[in-house]
Amino acid sequence: MGNIIKKQDFIDSIRDALQYISCFHPPDFIRAMTEAWENEQSPAARDAMAQILINSRMCAAGQRPICQDTGIVNVFLTIGMDLRWETDTGIDEMVNSAVHEAYSDTANPLRGSVVTDPAGARHNTGDNTPAVIHKDVVPGDRLGVTVAAKGGGSENKSRFVILNPSDDIAAWVLEQLPTMGAGWCPPGILGIGIGGTAEKAMLLAKEALLAPVNIHELQQRGPRNRVEELRLDIYARANALGIGAQGLGGLTTVLDVKISDYPTHAASKPVALIPNCAATRHIHFTLDGSGPAQLEPPSLDDWPDISRDISGTRRVNLDSLDRAAVGKWKPGETLLISGKLLTGRDAAHKRLIYLLDQGKALPEGLDFNGRFIYYVGPVDPVGDEVVGPAGPTTATRMDKFTEPLLEKTGLLGMIGKAERSTNTVETIARYGAVYLIATGGAAFLVSKAIRRARVVAFPELGMEAIHEFEVEDMPVTVAVDAHGHSIHQSGPQEWRMRIGKIPVVSG
Q1: Is the pTM of this model over 0.85?
Q2: Which residue among 170, 380, 430, 478 is least crowded, i.e. fewest CB within 10 A of its CB?
Q3: Rounded distance between C-alpha atoms, residue 187 and residue 200, angstroms
Q4: Are residues 33 and 77 in the same domain?
Q5: For 406-448, how does the pLDDT look when each residue is reduced to its tens digit (9 = 90+)?
Q6: Which residues form the domain of 209?
Q7: What is the largest CA-CA distance in the chain?
């Protein structure tokens, strides 16, 4: 007679785990990020990491989501052959019931980001179901469960290739990193899967991301096998690229490199690369039939006590800006912005461009002239919150909409995360506009700067509706100035040169 896993215990455990990881970073990730922050020499990158750590501690204390993108749910199950189930539904149905409950929790609602009919209408399912579920049957009578929530910004930067057997894996990875931009919110973790078949390599890479962050322990004791040698090689060479936190240029681009491998065909070398972002979220637990998992909250002492120095930072009133004023801003400059701005992301942009192309008026009360648009899809508020966590989404997805908006609406500037394409940078300069970035992975911190919020257009789009936010001292960085200079080009280039001149100190 094996252990009996009861339906409600299983559902409750996954529901609680999803709520847990929405608020709490893994302790090993916090330690690694803190060490990177302490060692960082780039002021812009150091400030970005400070915001991530401050945000993380705020979320742990307030039990609110680390990032507005609360992820697509990944569940990995190792099912003991001898255990039994007490349930009237299948495993997938139980998992999705847990996801529904977790994302619909009124005390801490999580953003629904999953859409059905992905090649067509792309309707939001509303509760983030269904999850992506992987099952493995193993000896024993216990159930191992790993729950992760994977953000779209980092998932979108995944890469896959089938190399020739003689090709250099590290060289391929190093070729990919600069092309991934900053949309995956570095510094984070690289998961690499090697071998098997195409789909096996991708699964290996995703599973690798769930392993403990321990690269510094590996550095101290030295590699014991080829995979560990490869981890150290890629880690050192990746950070030498100078991409840095949020792509601003700096010493730390990756916190760890995790690799899993599997035997493969003699003619093949499948390699998958999946990054994890600054909102790394996962937890593992085991069920043995004695009840639901007990997840103990971490101590706030696990987080560093950090405060940002904003003395001398330029304060900007959005309500009285013009092109002459924004023309004086410099790439890499930190601003504290106050006043009213509009929001919008993919679905709203698509509707706006349709109306403009048809020569139709924008919705009543919606005027972009001389204003900023913030690329964001916030979490629903709770209690006395004006808005829930509201960090930036990846701006490159809006590149194709940028020129018509600048041309036809008088838009003055944009706020998002990560770089813009070369063509978009040129377009921004041509219209004398600017592009600012907020820190990806600091969504709760950003939301505290939002004093008022109201929906002004397309309410049926839910989190993608156009809002008007009134903000006070919202921290942003000038990424593209009105003259076409981009910090995402100059920052990594500068720090790559600096890193090459930093002397190597042997142990």
Answers
A1: yes
A2: 430
A3: 26
A4: yes
A5: 999 999 999 999 999 999 999 999 999 999 999 999 999 999 9
A6: 152-278
A7: 77
